Amino acid sequence: MSGRPFKYLIAFSLFLLCFKACYAEVGCIEREREALLHFKQGFFYDFGMLSSWGNGEDKRDCCKWEGVECNNQTGHVVMLDLYAQYLGGKVSPSLAELQHLKHLNLSWNLFEGSLPTQLGNLSNLQSLDLSKNYFQGSIPDAFGNMTTLAYLDLSDNQLHGSMSDAFGNMNNLAYLDLSYNQLHGLMSDDFQAMTSLAYLDLSNNQLHGSMSDAFGNMTNLAYLYLSRNQLLGSMPDAFRTMSSLAYLDLSYNNLYGTISDAFGTMTNLAYLDLSSNQLEGEIPKVAFNNISCLVDLDLSGNQLHGSIPDAFANMVSLEFLDLSENQLEGEMPKSLRDLCNLRRLVLSYNNLTGLLEKDFLACSNNTLEALDLSHNLFKGTSFPNLPGFSQLRELYLGFNQLNGHLPESIGQLPQLEVLDILSNSVQGTVSTTHLFGLSKLKYLDLSFNSLTFNIGLDQAPLFQAQFIKLASCKLGPRFPNWLHTQKQYLTGLDISASGISDVIPNWLWNFIPNLMWLNVSNNHISGTLPKLTTYPSYLGMDMSSNCLEGSIPQSIFNTLWLDLSNNMFSGSISLSCGISDHSSLGLSHLDLSSNRLSGELPQCWKQWKYLIVLNLANNYFSGKIKNSIGLLYKMQTLHLRNNSLNGALPSSLKKCRDLRLVDLGKNKLSGRIPAWIGGSLSNLVVLNLRSNEFNGSIPLNLCQLRKIQMLDLSSNDISGMIPKCLKNLTAMARKGSLIISYGEIVYNSSIQLSYVDNTLVQWKGKELEYKNTLWLIKSIDFSSNKLVGEIPIEVTDLLELVSLNLSRNNLIGPIPTTIGQLKLLDFLDLSQNRLQGGIPDSLSQIARLSVLDLSNNTLSGKIPSGTQLQSFSASTYEGNPRLCGSPLLKRCPEDKDESGEAPFPGLNGKKYGIRDDANDIWFYGNIVLGFIIGFWGVCGTLLLHRSWRYAYFKFLNKIKDRLCVTTTISMNRLRRSFQS
Description:
By secondary structure, the protein is an alpha/beta fold. 13% of the residues lie in helices and 25% in strands. A hairpin with a 6-residue loop joins β55 and β56.
C-alpha cells in the first residue's frame, strides 16, 4: 500500500508533461516569418511602429510581433492588422505566402502602387481592408479567387479602370466598399450572383450608364450607396423586390424621369437620398404612403413640382426632410403637423406660397431643431408659433414676402443659434426684448428689411455672435454701441447701408484681429484709417462709398480682400511696397477706384502675385505702367480707366494670360496696339482702350480673341482698314454669354466673398455702367479714328452683335447688303463717314434696332420702306444730299412718277385738283349709299311687315318692364338697409 501514492505521483507527473507537450504555444512558421520581413522591406518609412519586427534573438517569434496574430496550435499567421500605423511604401507579393491568413487590415496608411495580383492566392482570407491608402491601377481579376471572402474594403484610394468581373465569383461576400476611387464604366451585371451581399458602397466614382436590374437579386442587401457618380436613366423596377433595403443613396447623379412607386414596397427603408438629380414630376403619394420606418428623406436639387403630398403624414418616424431646390408650389401641407419626431425640415428654394400658420408644425414643437423656409413666396404678417419650438437651433426665413413687425416672441427661443430673416419686408423696431433671451445666438442676419434698432449699451443682448449682418437696417446716425459687447467670437460684421454718419470708433478696430469680414460700405462714415501695426492676412474689408479721407496706411494692404472705392483718399500708394507678409497669400481683390489718389503706379507687384482683381480707375495716377505688372500672372481683371497714364503698354502684360477684362480707357496711352494681345490674352471677354492716343492699324492678331464680347478701340488715332478676320470673334457669333464674376471663401470659415465685374459702355450716346447685365452686351466700337476702306462684309457674320459703332472715320463704299443678318442689333452708328450707295433693304428687317445713325455720308437712293426705318427721325439720315423718301421731306423721283406728276407745275396742280374732286365725289356718294341701306333696310322692313313690327315693339315693352321691376326692388332693398 505504501507504493500506491508514489504510483499516483508518477502518473500525475506524466499527465502534466503530456498536457504541456500537447498545449504548448507553437512559434511562427519560418517561411511565413521570412515573408513578413520581406513585406517590411518594401516600406519607405514606418516611423518605428514595427520595431518589434526583426531578426534578433528576442524577435524570432513573429507571432509576438506588432499586428501579427497566429494560430496557437499550428503557428500559422491568421491575422495581420496594421491599421493606422503610418506605414508607407508598396505591398510586397510575399504576403501571398501567408496561406492561412484570414484577416488582413492595412487601412489608414500611406501604401501606394498597384494592388498585388498574388493576394488573390489567399484562399482562406475572410476579410480584406486596404482602405484609406494611395493604391493605384485596376482591381486585379485574381481577387475573384478569394471565394471565402466576406468583407472587402478598397475605399478611398486612387483605383481606376472598369468594375472587375472578379466580384461575380465572391458568393460569400457580405460587405463591399469601393467608394472614393476613380472607377468608371458601366454597372456590372455580375452583382446578381452576389446574393449574400448586405452592404454595397460604390459612391464617389465615375460610373456611368443606367443602373442594373441585377440589384433585384440582392434580396439581403440592406445598404446601397451609389451617390456622386454619373449614372443616368430612370430607377429600375428591380427595387420592388429589395424589401430588406434600409439605406439607399442615389444622390448627385443624372437620374431622370419620375420617382418610382417601387419605394412603397420598401417597408424597412430608413434612409432615402435622391438629391441632386434631374427627377421631375410630382412627388408620388403611393411611394411614401407605407414607409412608416423612414427616418431621413432627401429629394432636394431636382425638378419636382406640384404640392407636398398629404401622404407624408404616414411617415411617423421621419426626423429629417429636405425638399429644397425644386419647383414645389402650394401652401404648407397640414400633413406636416403629424410628424411628431421631425428634427430638421428644409423646404428652401421652392415656390411655396400662403401664410405661415402659427401651429403648422404643432406636433414637432419639442423635437424640431432646424427650420429652413427661405427663398419661397410666403407672405403675411404672422410668424410660426416661435415660443413652442423649445429645441429650435436654426431658423431660416430669408427671401420671402413676410411683412409686419418682428414678434417679440422670437426672443423666447433659448436654444436658437441661427436667425436668418434676410430680404423680407419686416418692419418696426428691434429692441432688447427681441434679442435678450437668445443667449446662444451665433448667427444673426436681419439684412434688407425695414427694421430700426433701438438697443442701448446698458441693454446689450447676452449672446456672443460669430456673424452679425444688418445691412440696410437703420442703425445710425451713430455707431451702434451695443456691438461693442460682441468682442469674444465675432468674425463677420456687415452694417452696410445702415444710415451711419459717424467716425469709426476705436472699439471697432479692436475687433480687427479676430475679424474675417467687415462691411461698412454705403454709409456716411468720415475720418481716417488708423495706422495699425498689422491687419490679418485673412481679413476681407469693404469700406466703399463713404466719406473716408487721408492717406491709406501701409499695413492695410496685408489683407485678403480690400475695397476702399468711392471715398476721398488721397496721396500715393507707393508706400504699400514696404509691406510684405510672407506667411500670407496676399491680396486677391483690390479696389481703390473713384478716390483722389495720385502719383505713379507702384512697382512692387511681386508681393501681390495672387491678385485677381485690380481696380484703380477714376483717380489721378500718372506716369507709365511699369513692366513689373507682368508679375500679376493670376490677374483676371484690370481697371485703370480715367487716369493720366501715358506711354506704351508694357510687353510684360502678356504674361497675365488669365486676364478676362482690361479697361484702360480715358488715359494718354500711346504707341501701337500690341499684336500679342490676341495671342497671349486669349481669355479676354472685355477689351476697352477708348479715349487714348494709340496709333497704327488694328493688329490682325486681335481676331484670335474668340471669347471677346466687348471690343472698344474708339477715340484714338488708329488708321488702316478694318480687318476682315473679325468673323473669327466667335463669341459674338454664337449664343451664350458670360458674367465676369469671382467667388472666394475665406480660409477656415464659411464666409464667401463674391465680386461681379463691371465696365462702362458707350451706349446710345451715354456712358452706362454694366455689371450683372454685362452679359447682354456684345459690341464693337471703332468710332472716332482714321479708319479707311470699306466695311468688310464679314462683320455681318457676327450674328449675336448688339451694338456696332463705326462712326467718325473715313470709311467708303456701300453698307454691306447682308447687314440684315444682325437680327439682335440694337445700336448701329455709321455716321460721319463717306459711305456710298443705297441703304440695303435688309436693314429694315432688324426689328430690334432702336438707335440708328447714318447721317453725314454720301448715301443715295430711296430709304427702304418699312415701319422700322420710317420710325426714326429725319436726323438719322441728314447730311446725305442724294437720299430721299420718308422720313425725309425730299420725295424720290420714282414716287413722283407713280403719282403721275408732270414736269410742268401748272399741269401738275390741275391734275391734283381733278384727283381731289374725284375723291370728294366718291366719299359723299358712299355716305348716302350707306344711309339708304342702313336706315331703310331696318325701318322699311318694319313698315311693310306688321307681324315683325308687333314683335319688335313687344320686345321693347318687355325690356322696359324688366328694368322698372329691377330698379324698384333694388331701391326697396337699399331703403331697408339704411333703416336697419
